[in-house]
Design a protein that fits this description.
- By secondary structure, the protein is of the alpha/beta class.
- The protein has one domain: Rossmann fold.
- 45% of the residues lie in helices and 13% in strands.
- It contains 9 helices and 7 strands.
- It has a 7-stranded parallel beta sheet with strand order 3-2-1-4-5-6-7, sandwiched between helices.
- α1 links the parallel β1 and β2.
- The longest helix has 22 residues.
- Bound molecules: NADP nicotinamide-adenine-dinucleotide phosphate (NAP) and coenzyme A (COA).
- Coenzyme A binds next to α4 and α6.
- NADP nicotinamide-adenine-dinucleotide phosphate binds next to α1, α4 and α6.
Length: 272
């Protein structure tokens, strides 16, 4: 039985999170675990999977972990089928696996560009495509974890901008095609979130971190709990009429702060 300490009640529900073993996605997993859900997380590293499963189990409830690469359709499908068999059909499917590195367009090889497209965009297609058959329909919720790069062009981020714009289009098309089956599909767009790998890569110094913070209208970084709380609401009956939406959780950052962020990143990269 879960030691639930949540405003939401996900007892008896199965939640599958691709990329759920660290950072924002792990925070989302913790949020659903605290709300009593049965959890399944997937990522490449068996060590990260094992650590995430052990930590989530401490919150109570059933947890499964699968080591797989979202670029491998068969591996993703196998993990999803195993999760559905062991925990029950999937009520909440979250696609959040992603890769990022800052590099100018002329500083990345075709393989570097394709690597990010393959993880973020093709990987999300794999999760959605293989996951649909295993959703508990009607009533299931699908959430793609996007990024402000989807709609704010950002230097050194051509690969991520293209990939996440594509992810938001997966959201919109799936929302249209799957609405009649009672499946809602939405994107959640985190802004700069404290203590995450993404921010360590994009704002690697105290100076660039301060620049990013200063570019957020609310004047602070978000916490992983902010993203988890949005997902808890979005997957709940409280959001039963929300589908095809792209929802920023970013303190207003996407209204214009990202160019300042990129400037900070550029300064960091050009620094001796
Ligand atoms: P993170 O900790 O590096 O999370 C990425 C997760 O995806 C990890 O669990 C990683 O585990 C997994 N992963 C990476 N490549 C994979 C692959 N090929 N197959 C399967 N799993 C894979 O990074 P984060 O900063 O928290 O970012 C999480 C999500 O939030 C991403 O979708 C990112 O685009 C989005 N986001 C983050 C921020 C931010 O401020 N950090 C802002 C906007 C959007 P393994 O290494 O074990 O595979
Ligand atoms: N600048 C330019 N190109 C880079 C790069 C950088 N900083 N980092 C990686 N690349 C290129 C590599 O050079 C390679 O291309 P090449 O063989 O033509 O040189 C290509 O990207 C693939 O790199 P590789 O390390 O083989 O990929 P991978 O599949 O093992 O790892 C990454 C994928 C590169 C995205 C890796 O950073 C990763 O696993 N990230 C996951 C965590 C993460 O990014 N978290 C933040 C999420 S927002």
């Amino acid at each position: 039985m879960s030691t639930s300490s949540s405003a939401f009640d996900y007892r008896g529900k199965t939640v599958f999170i691709a990329g759920g073993t660290s950072g924002i996605n792990f925070g989302i997993a913790q949020g659903f675990a605290r709300a009593g859900a049965r959890l399944a997380v997937l990522s490449r590293s068996q060590d990260k999977v094992d650590a995430a499963v052990a930590s989530l189990k401490e919150l109570g409830g059933e947890v499964r972990g699968y080591a797989a690469d979202v670029r491998d359709y068969e591996a993703v499908e196998t993990a999803l089928k195993a999760a559905a068999a062991e925990l029950g059909l999937i009520d909440v499917l979250i696609s959040g696996a992603a890769g990022n590195f800052p590099a100018p367009a002329l500083g990345m090889s075709a393989k570097g560009f394709k690597t990010v497209i393959d993880i973020d965009l093709l990987g999300s297609f794999h999760v959605l495509r293989a996951g649909y058959a295993l959703l508990n329909k009607p009533g299931a919720a699908v959430i793609n974890i996007s990024a402000p790069q989807a709609y704010n062009a950002m230097e050194f981020q051509m690969h991520v901008c293209a990939a996440k714009a594509g992810v938001d289009m997966l959201t919109r098309v799936a929302a249209i095609e799957w609405g009649a089956a009672g499946v809602r599909v939405n994107s959640v767009v985190p802004g700069p979130i404290a203590n995450t790998e993404g921010m360590r890569r994009l704002a690697p110094t105290p100076e660039t971190e301060a620049l990013v913070r200063g570019s957020v209208p609310m004047g602070c970084f978000g916490e992983v709990e902010d993203i988890a709380n949005c997902c808890l609401w979005l997957a709940s009956p409280m959001a039963r009429y929300v589908s095809g939406a792209v929802i920023p959780v970013d303190g207003g950052w996407s209204l214009g702060g990202t160019s300042i962020t990129a400037g900070g990143m550029k300064q960091a990269l050009l620094a001796p």
